[in-house]
Amino acid sequence: MATLIAPITFSPGADAEALHNAFKGWGTDEKTVIAILGHRNVYQRQQIRKLYEEMYQEDLVKRLESELTGDFERSVYRWMLEPADRDAVLANVAIKDGSKGYHVIVEIACVLSSEELLAARRAYHHRYKRSLEEDVAANTSGDLRQLLVGLVTSYRYGGDEINARLAKTESDILHSSIKEKKGNHEEAIRILTTRSKTQLLATFNRYRDDHGASITKKLLDDASDDFRKALHTAIRCINDHKKYYEKVLRNAIKRVGTDEDALTRVVVSRAEKDLRNIAELYYKRNSVHLEDAVAKEISGDYKKFILTLLGKDV
Fold first, then answer.
1. Tell me, what CATH number does 96's domain have?
2. 253 has binding-site annotation
3. How far is CA 55 from CA 13, 15, 17, 65, 255, in A?
4. Is residue 131 part of a domain?
5. CB 211 within 8 A of CB 201
6. Any known ligand binding at 255?
7. Which of 83, 96, 243, 248 has the fewest CB atoms inside 10 Å of its own CB, making it the most exposed?
8. Is 257 annotated as a binding residue?
């Protein structure tokens, strides 16, 4: 369930004009920017952007970049992009961040559907004139490179069929691969980058039944290098991406100095999809409403915009 509250009917022309007026004179009317863009779905935002350019001969996104600053500007910018283009931008930023950003590459590759991932790869190619897999490969090496390139180029079968015998066999392969810390990880990479998510869930369940602990717990205990950390993230995203995102938000809020980049990424990416479900998980885990926790950690127009996307007007 989404947290975004958007009107069923709206006037893109009136919105474009109101935004144009918000940019006039000294300073920007941020309240109008939040009131409009914080309440428009992706289709409505693209309509506003298209009409704004027709009416004023300039790109609304570029104008917003020049008018806004800091975390507020970054969150509005990413919100205004079409989902595939946003994923392309997030992937590029993650690649530039090196080992600090590998989890974002894994997240994009494992949470998106096959069609969404393909769209993100096309958007990346269009925006950066290089392929996503090319940039991932150029910035990684060894098992990590194999895993990340395999994940971003994967086109998984989306059906519900399960092969129980295969789940048993491959859960044993994963167990051996994890146990042998310096062993050959090719088979584990093959399994995680080619099998359908439904088949992988059956494999993870079989792993837990046969070995008395979840595969993620075993990996977390041994997550001593970038490859195993990426493997852990991939399995968590495939297993239950809502639980994964809840933890991303929890870590972003609870760390010393809020991780605004992670907070923005989750909110703008999931506000139109399942952020309400993620927020409910957050409350169950922390006994605090997500919007209340967020409100204590951030401030200014950035805070107002993020809370608006969370479905709470301020």
1. 1.10.220.10
2. yes
3. 8, 12, 8, 19, 44
4. yes
5. no
6. yes
7. 96
8. yes
Same domain, 252 and 302: yes
Per the structure, the count of domains in the chain is 4
Domain containing 49 equals 12-67
Q: Is 295 annotated as a binding residue?
A: yes
- Tell me the pLDDT of the chain (314 aa) as tens digits: 999 999 999 999 999 999 999 999 788 999 999 999 999 999 999 999 999 999 999 999 999 999 999 999 999 999 999 999 999 999 999 999 988 999 999 999 999 999 999 999 999 999 999 999 999 999 999 999 999 999 999 999 999 999 999 999 999 999 988 877 655 689 999 999 999 999 999 999 999 999 888 888 877 766 568 998 999 999 999 999 999 999 999 999 987 778 999 999 999 999 999 999 999 999 999 999 999 999 999 999 999 999 999 999 76
> Which two structure tokens, joined as six digits, stand for 80?
């205004």
Query: Is 25 annotated as contributing to ligand binding?
Result: yes
For the record, the structure tokens of 273 come out as 């999809």
